[in-house]
Design a protein that fits this description.
This protein has 5 helices and 6 strands. It is an alpha+beta fold and 207 residues long.
Length: 207
């Protein structure tokens, strides 16, 4: 009889240990399932789909701090592109300047007004000159706010008989503003100034 009771007690201990193990396994599996579900929901919420030309393109959302340098450089690039890309057409010049001045403060407008008073844009139109710019590099310091930058670029003034190349260096600071259709990056260039703008060569072929 004692042997039978001992066997019952042993069996009970086995069942107890198995039950505890089963409960622990259920808790671990349930916790893992909940964690995985939350992770999947977070991942899905970070995806958006953009419809372009009849095709659904997948995009991923990200915190602004993760893309500050990329967005800032593109903002600087676009400002210089609109400000220095000119054709001998008054409407084109006004359109490009309007886009550029949306990205900067009054220092850029002051530069524009000074060039206008000097007859720079009238000379572009009367001499049928096209002006292009290529950004060589952008130095950006995002360790301190507002963010300081220095832009190195090459300008090209194209006439019918020749093309003049100029080396351009500008600098300024970036501060955060609200995003808009006219300013999608949400930055504003301030204290913008030209450090260097000099001819470096002439191509008589006009190309």
């Amino acid at each position: 009889m004692f042997t039978q009771l001992k066997n019952i007690d042993t069996a009970f201990q086995h069942i107890k240990r198995f039950s505890l193990f089963l409960i622990l396994a259920c808790v671990v599996i349930s916790g893992f399932a909940v964690y995985t579900s939350f992770d999947m929901v977070k991942s899905v919420q970070g995806k958006i789909y953009i419809l372009a030309n009849g095709k659904a393109l997948e995009a991923f959302s990200a915190e602004r701090k993760d893309n500050v340098a990329v967005e800032a450089r593109d903002h600087i690039n676009m400002f210089h592109h609109w400000f220095f890309t000119l054709d001998p057409d008054e409407k084109v010049i006004q359109s490009n300047m309007g886009k550029a001045l949306n990205l900067a403060d009054e220092t850029a407008r002051r530069n524009y007004e000074n060039l206008k008073e000097q007859g720079y844009y009238n000379n572009i139109i009367s001499a049928n000159i096209s002006q292009e710019i290529m950004i060589d590099s952008i130095q950006l310091d995002i360790s301190e706010y507002p963010y300081h930058f220095r832009c190195f670029a090459t300008q090209k003034l194209i006439r019918s008989s020749s093309a003049v190349s100029r080396k351009l260096v500008t600098q300024g600071w970036l501060r955060n503003v609200s995003r808009s259709d006219n300013n999608p990056h949400g930055f504003l260039i301030q204290k913008w100034e030209t450090l260097l703008n000099q001819d470096v060569g002439t191509n008589t072929s006009g190309q």
